[in-house]
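Deliverable D4.2, example record:
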Amino acid sequence: MAKTTKPLAQEAIKKTEETVRPIFAFGKENYILMIIGVGLIVLGFILMTGGGSKDPNVFNEEMFDFRRLTLSPILILIGFGIGIVAIMKKPKD
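Output generated by the structure prediction step:
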């Protein structure tokens, strides 16, 4: 009997070693959402740049346009919202 149980036990150990996978905090979908959120934040900050004047004595009205005052902060907030959703969402694995 000892001869039959020893190979079975070794086979069971091999099967459990093969099926053990590392456990990650986030799933693939979480990482994709996080990348999208960071991309929107970066895009918002890029859209916010510019509009300055090279001469400090000249006032430039370009810094008060729709892109810098409205669109870019909205994109940044949406990016942060997607990042929060990516962190809070349970992975399907």
